[in-house]
Specification:
By secondary structure, the chain is mainly alpha-helical. 81% of the residues lie in helices and 8% in strands. It contains two helices and four strands. The strands form two sheets. It has a two-stranded antiparallel sheet. A hairpin with a 5-residue loop joins strand 2 and strand 3. Helix 1 packs antiparallel against helix 2. The longest helix has 84 residues. The chain is rod-shaped.
Length: 182
């Protein structure tokens, strides 16, 4: 029974260690995702600034359309650049949305696993409580048995008599009388 208790206590400790490990991993991942998210936000801001800058340059280019044909080629290059920047911004936004979804999914999985670990610990705790109650009942029974034995007072009374020496150096007490005291 002691082994069972030790095994249950070991299981509880391992479950707590595992839960702590998952919590640490969750915090580490959350911190890492937070850093990545901040980087993506900074990149998004830069993209928006670049887009605004490009839009203002595009407006300048529209006014240049009145100039010769070589200016038209420059305008087209700047339009392509704006389209590329817009595409990059769209990609960054899609990645941000994907990371948000992955973060939510991971957080949900971690919460589910943490809930399961808590339930497992509660089950193990309940099992330990049951075993502790059983041990207490057994100890109470043993205590009652000892009390009954003491109450009956089984004692050996030895009367002093002669001793008979044995060949091996021991002694025999032939006058031993067994009695029960009530």
């Amino acid at each position: 029974m002691k082994r069972d208790l030790q095994a249950v206590e070991k299981d509880i400790m391992e479950a707590e260690v595992a839960r702590n490990g998952w919590e640490e991993k969750s915090w580490d991942l959350d911190t890492m995702i937070g850093h990545k998210f901040k980087k993506l936000e900074a990149l998004s801001i830069k993209c928006n600034q670049a887009l605004r800058s490009s839009m203002s340059k595009l407006e300048e280019l529209i006014s240049l359309q009145q100039q010769p044909v070589e200016n038209a080629a420059k305008i087209e290059a700047k339009r392509n650049r704006v389209a590329t920047l817009q595409s990059n911004c769209d990609e960054v936004e899609a990645r941000v949305n994907y990371l948000k979804q992955e973060t939510q999914n991971y957080t949900s999985r971690c919460a589910s696993e943490a809930k399961k670990l808590v339930e497992d610990v509660e089950i193990e705790t309940h099992s330990v409580d049951v075993v502790e109650r059983e041990v207490a009942d057994v100890l109470e029974g043993v205590g009652q048995t000892i009390s009954q034995v003491n109450h009956l007072g089984c004692l050996a009374n030895v009367t002093v008599g002669t001793t008979i020496p044995l060949e091996d150096g021991g002694l025999v007490f032939p006058g031993i009388i067994w009695a029960h005291r009530v």
